[in-house]
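Friendly challenge for the regulars: who can give me the structure tokens for this chain first? No prize, just bragging rights.
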Amino acid sequence: MMTFLGARLDRSALVLINCRLDGYPAFFHVEPEAIGRFLTVDLQNDSHAALLVEEQWTRFAPIFEKLINKHGNDFVATAAMLGL
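First reply, four minutes later:
Bragging rights claimed.
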């Protein structure tokens, strides 16, 4: 089970996501454009992507869980990795 802890825009303009997977801490980055494309919305700005991750966590969690199991921590998820 994945629990959302937080999401924010980091210095490199990527969305940094912190969560727990089966009780263990996990973190990774996602390109803001990938979040907008996944949800088929136009982002107001890059920080809007972090807010959308929190609001739509139940949609993202299964995909992010697979990516964490495959890549571990500290990776950058792209639109291609989200199946777009």
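The beta strands are 2-9, 15-21, 24-30, 76-77. The radius of gyration is 11 Å. Your move, everyone else.
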